[in-house]
Structure formats: structure tokens, C-alpha cells
Structure prediction request, 421 residues.
Amino acid sequence: MFDRPDSGERAVLVHLTFHTGQEDLAELKELAKSAGTDPVYVVTGSRKRPDAKYFMGTGKLDELKLAVQDYAADVVLVNHPLSPSQERNLEGYLGVRVVDRNGLILDIFAQRAQSFEGKLQVELAQLKHLSTRLVRGWTHLERQKGGIGLRGPGETQLETDRRLLAGRIKQIQQRLDKVDKQRHQGRSQRKKAEIPTVSLVGYTNAGKSTLFNQLTGAGIYAADQLFATLDPTLRSVQLANNSEIVLADTVGFIRHLPHELVAAFKSTLQEASEAELLLHVIDAHSDDRDTIIAQVNLVLTEIQADTVKQIEVFNKIDLLDGILPHIDRDDAGNPVRVWLSAETGAGMELLVQVLVELFASTKVTRRCFLTPQQGGIRAKLFTCAKIIAEDIDELGASELVVQIDVKHLGLLKEVKTEELP
Prediction:
């Protein structure tokens, strides 16, 4: 249903400015290139409000049609959300496919998805987006059934499509619910083991994956393009003083992230909303830096992650003049911002220093000698401590090496123990 041509399509871009706000033209060009199209012409203009039928006025409509013909364009990309009727009317007038901003972002996500869960999430978002646009392309509404021996209530082709679409949406949602339960179990186990989760969040192409690779050595795909990362990746990171965190690399945000995507990626985005700390990665070199920070915080509010503690990571300082790696602190001396370059590695030790400072380990390592009658204590140790090694003799006595938080040391008051470095 969502196959795309292998070769790059020639695209005409439409970017209009409205008094109620506007998108970014440079971002539209990046989105178009990320989708694999070749932007050949840009139609720009301004209006007080969109036209109800064609979204744009007759003058711009004629300019757009002429550009499509002159450049033999395959697709028109509009930097705004279109209603189903506007999209349908434009396609009828221009004779080529018309894709709005939401559809373009969905298409990029479809290309980037690699994991089973990611593909399901994208398909769910696409189907919900498509369900409002099923009228397009169907000019016949005759009954499928009719005539002698075949009379019945019948069903139009459109009704059949909607029924099949609804069934597929329900099927995908059930599968994603299972994945969500698995993710929830993973988060519960990490909480039980008292391993804090740190999520990387930020605008698309801010450098999250490069930073993730620097901290973890994971070697995940990182590129100078929008939405290079779609599938979330989690890695354990060992810090100083025996402390450990789980670092999560998440999908990048963008202005007006389509609601279909926010809903479909709910389980993925929960890694951010349930984290102990958010590292908000920011492109320090961007001219639109403050606006982008505000847009990311809007999305964080939408996914209910705005109450999670946040450290701003101003990345790409190698592209700025006179900025050295450093840490900004508030009046109480707490870190609030780190300036670094994930590409060159400059300042990475400062970020690690902040993480150690925030997650200073309170864990100690003990060798415990438990009698067969202390099985209850052994069971509790498995729930609140990290078991490094265990040896059980033929009489049922246990020798365990555990890493345990000092607040749980009361469990060992009746147990013979030996302190380990």
C-alpha cells in the first residue's frame, strides 16, 4: 500500500506565510531531501488565511500548475497540513500527487523504520492518516453486489475499504499493546534494580545519536539528515563509583509533530516520560535555536514528560567561534547546561562528570554467607540488589556476591558478610 519508487522524484515545494504563523522553508527542503525527492522549484507567497477549496489563491494555483508542467514534477509537497478535500482538489487540478507536511513526515518515518515495533507504529500512523482520505481516487460508488440472485444490502467500494482499514488498525493496535507490555516490564525491572534511565531528547538532527555513540560506543546509525534515528535504542552505561544508568536514544521531535505519530509512538515516547533525567540535545549552531527549544518543550508537555528533570546539552560547538566546552550552573551550583561537541568529542568528559554528579553511586559490594534457613533474605536480595555471583553447597547454604544500595543494608544485619572493593 505504501510502496515508493526507487528513483528520486522531482518535487515542487509550496510554502505560504500566514498571519497566524508559519513553518520553516529551509526545514521543508530538508524534509523533501530526507524523503528522497529532488526539489526543483519553490512556490512562496502570503495570505491572511488558507483558501477552503485549494488552500491557496488562484494566482498561486496557476503558478504552481505551470511549475509542475515546466519541471515535469512527480509530486507537490505542501509545507502545511491539508484537509482531505483540499488535497483531493489540488490533485484533481494539478494532475499529480499532492502530499502535505504530515504525509511527508509519515513517509520519511516509513523509510527509516527498521524494527518490528517501529514498522507497526509507522503503519498505524499512516493508516489513521489515510482513513480520512479514502475518498481520493474512487469515482465509482456502485454496489459490488446486485442483480438476480445477488441482491442484498451490498456495500460500496469505499465502505469495504473503510471496513478493511478499521480491521487492520485494530490488529496493529493489539500487537502494539503487547509490545507496550514488554516495554513496561523492562522499565519495571530497571526500577526494581534501581537503575536510573536517562533519555536523549531533542529536535531532529540535533546530534542525539552521535552523542549516544560517544557515551556508549554503540555504533548506531547517525547521519546529517532529518529523522536518521527512528527506532529507540537502550544501552547500559557504567559510570564512576560503581554507578550505572540506562541511556535511551529516542526519535527526534519536529515542529507540529503529527498527532498520528504521537499516538502511534506512545510506548516509545514513554521512555522519555518515565526517565529520571532528560538530556535535551540542542544544535547550538542553529539560527533558530530558541524557537526549536520551545518546540521540543511543547512536545515534551504533550507526552507528559515536562515534569522530568532536564539538562540542556548544547551540541555542535565546533561550528561556533570562541565557545569552549563548559558547564553552566544555577545559583545553587546545580548543573543546568553542558556545552560540547559530540562529533569531535570535546567536552564529553564534562557531560560524564554531570551524570556522575547527579547519579552518584550509593551502592556497595558485599559477599554474603547465608544459611539454608535464610532463604527469605536471599529472595529479598534478588529483588533489591544486583547478584554478581552465587554458589550453593550441597547442604543448601549460599554464598552470594551482591551489589546493594546502602539503604538496603538493614537486610544483612543478621547475615555474615564480607566487604569487597
Notes: Residues 157-192 form the longest helix (36 residues).
